[in-house]
Amino acid sequence: MSPIPKTAPFAEEEIDILNRVVGTASPIQRAWLAGFLAGVDASGGVLAPQPLAPARPAEPLTIVYASESGNSEKLAGDIAKAARKNGLKPTIIDMADLELSALTSAKRLVVIAATWGEGEPPARAIRAYNELMGEGAPRLDGVEFGVLALGDTAYVEFCAIGKKIDERLAALGGKRVVDRVDCDLDFAEPAARWIGDAVKVLTPPNAGGRVIEVDFGAKPASAPSTDIVEAEIIEHVDLNSSRSDKETIHLALAFEGGAPAYEPGDSLDLYAENDPAYVDELLKAAGLTGDDKLRSDFINSRDVTTLSAKTVETYAEKTGHQYVKALIADGQVKEWIAGRQLIDLIATFPIALDAETLRALTRPLAPRAYSIASSRREVGDEAHLLISAVRYDSHGRARKGVASNYVAERLKRGGRVRVKVKPNRHFGLPAPDKDIIMVGPGTGVAPFRAFVQERRATEATGKSWLFFGDRTFTHDFLYQLDWQDALNGGALTRMDVAFSRDTPEKIYVQHKIWDRRAELVEWLDKGAYFYVCGDAKAMAKDVRAALVRAYVDVKSLSPEAAEQAVATLEREKRYLQDTY
Ligand SMILES: Cc1cc2nc3c(=O)[nH]c(=O)nc-3n(C[C@H](O)[C@H](O)[C@H](O)COP(=O)(O)OP(=O)(O)OC[C@H]3O[C@@H](n4cnc5c(N)ncnc54)[C@H](O)[C@@H]3O)c2cc1C
Ligand SMILES: Cc1cc2nc3c(=O)[nH]c(=O)nc-3n(C[C@H](O)[C@H](O)[C@H](O)COP(=O)(O)O)c2cc1C
């Protein structure tokens, strides 16, 4: 609703109060208020005892989301908004804070769940997820529910967590009233459709007395926001030495008219282009070399590398290729696609293709997230990123990650790139007087450069301790001079490093955590915050396990009690992760 103008015949504070109350009111509340005031006027302005029927209390809707990078959280907000418009009273719960008793008392329940790792729940949601899956989970007889699953078809365990939660709610006696939808990375439209359907089904006929139709077709509730901005690349530096086998680019971006509002802990979504050489090879394999429009679309806006089980099925359907059909019939698809890309499918099972068929095998090219490695308080209108070029060989082909190689190989100083801020309100700095421990090997160190810059700029009094690791001290010490400056200036209190290839036995950050366990536990006992960023597959789990062992050793706890101690840190939001 547009705000009440400053010219209205009220005092300024009254206009503020009215805007706060009326501005956030649902259409039903506004309609009631309008009718009520009209009634008061009609009766000569006397606030007589209520002749109207008492307002029916709004029917509740519980919305639970399990999110890591914020997509499910955003959709939870969208569904709450739509529910409110329909006269429901939504309550949003982050699965990180969920007590299962909240589900038993829910009449209607919506769960929006993302899948992470290799088919795992988002890190913050693990505790509540395990409780829900565990033997002690309460019965949910009669609870009407619907699940929206978020995922990425590039992963074998596509939407695994949403699927499991959906099954579990039904097994506990819940009544599925909305069918689950499994969304790929381009989830905006299917999610908006699902939200529209779910709210309709979950709204009882008499909710708030009147149902207001919401047109989700016209404008998806979570349409990709348009605040993509173009930035100029003012620094493009490989932080590894020329003798390293890695390439990690420090990218400094400058924004005309000011950097978009970002906070330490946020990421930037970067919109990349595909490698023209790969696209040419793909078009050649498909026999479509002359199609310039397709070539341009494929370079700029389609995901032409991902090969999912769904892609293989579409290929079989559209081409009728006998060998691909046989692959599916033999249940070999999951195994065959591992380590392969779209080009392998086309090259291994060639068949005449037209442009539309080839396009149907691709999905929109998704942006890639990169942790912001700077603080606006120190770098002004810039944002810095730290991007490691992903390169590997598989099935006899050299492969290159799309976005990281776009940055490493094709972006240059003076060039331009499109980005969008991806806020992460679950990975921010605590109050300036709190101590922080940061564990960030490899590119995981990026947000901690932002943390240290911010703490220097704000003259924070809390102590800070960084654990960093990479392959070698000489060739892979990312931002070495920055850390030395910060240590000299006091913005960083201490730093421990682990270089895995400098010694005969491999040393990682978790080994350093173990070595420093007594002081580390002391810092935590005194209220320090513990941050982990970087590799989710191994590092984050090894670091957590090292911390549990540290509690066992330092505080003479049983493994169960030590696990509880770390779980308590997580619940208190003093153990925070941003891993990928
Ligand atoms: C919140 C967040 C923050 C992030 N921050 C950073 C950051 O600060 N710096 C950074 O560099 N990255 C960061 N990432 C990762 C980044 O978003 C990209 O995933 C990464 O750069 C790879 O993207 P790409 O387009 O180059 O590769 P893609 O084209 O997406 O290819 C990557 C895929 O290739 C496959 N693959 C990779 N290596 C191998 C292998 N050895 N064998 C077989 N298959 C393999 C895997 O399927 C992998 O998913 C972050 C991710 C998230 C979610
Ligand atoms: C490191 C990483 C691992 C992921 N693992 C899976 C997976 O195993 N299965 C899946 O379907 N999606 C997976 N995804 C995709 C996410 O589920 C998807 O991006 C989702 O929109 C994230 O939602 P959120 O922002 O609410 O966390 C993964 C994404 C990342 C970055």
How would you characterize the overall build of this protein?
- The protein has a six-stranded antiparallel beta sheet, covered by helices on one side. The chain has a five-stranded parallel beta sheet with strand order 2-1-3-4-5, sandwiched between helices.
- The protein is built from 23 helices and 20 strands.
- It is globular.
- Helix 6 links the parallel strand 4 and strand 5 (175-183).
- The two termini are 39 Å apart.
- By secondary structure, it is an alpha/beta fold.
- Residues 209-226 have low confidence and may be disordered.
- The chain is 39% helix and 20% strand.
- Bound molecules: flavin-adenine dinucleotide and flavin mononucleotide.
- Flavin mononucleotide binds at residues 67-72, 114-119, 122, 150-152, 155, 157-160, 185, 536, 580.
- The site of flavin mononucleotide has 24 residues, from helix 3.
Low-confidence parts? 209-226
Computed structural class? alpha/beta
Mean pLDDT: 92
Strand order of the largest sheet: 11-8-15-6-7-12
Topology, number of strands: 20
Basic shape = globular
Share of β-strand residues: 15-25%
Biggest β-sheet: count, sense, barrel? 6 strands, antiparallel
List its traits:
alpha/beta; 23 helices; binds flavin mononucleotide; 6-stranded antiparallel beta sheet; globular; binds flavin-adenine dinucleotide; 5-stranded parallel beta sheet; 39% helix
Question: What is the topological layout?
Answer:
Layout: H1 12-23, H2 27-42, E1 59-66, H3 71-85, E2 88-94, H4 101-104, E3 108-114, H5 126-133, E4 144-150, H6 160-171, E5 175-183, H7 188-202, E6 229-238, E7 248-254, E8 267-271, H8 276-286, H9 292-301, E9 302-303, H10 309-319, H11 322-329, H12 333-337, H13 342-348, H14 355-360, E10 363-364, E11 368-371, H15 376-379, E12 382-388, E13 391-394, E14 397-400, H16 402-410, E15 416-422, E16 436-439, H17 446-457, E17 464-470, H18 473-476, H19 480-489, E18 494-499, H20 509-515, H21 517-525, E19 529-534, H22 539-555, H23 559-571, E20 575-579
Parallel strand pairs: 1-2, 1-3, 3-4, 4-5, 16-17, 16-19, 17-18, 19-20
Antiparallel strand pairs: 6-7, 6-15, 7-12, 8-11, 8-15, 9-10, 13-14
Helix pairs in contact: 3-7, 8-13, 10-11, 17-19, 20-22, 21-22, 22-23
The structure holds flavin-adenine dinucleotide (FAD) and flavin mononucleotide.
Flavin-adenine dinucleotide is lined by residues 69, 267, 305, 339, 368-371, 386-388, 390, 392, 394, 401-405, 443, 446, 578, 580.
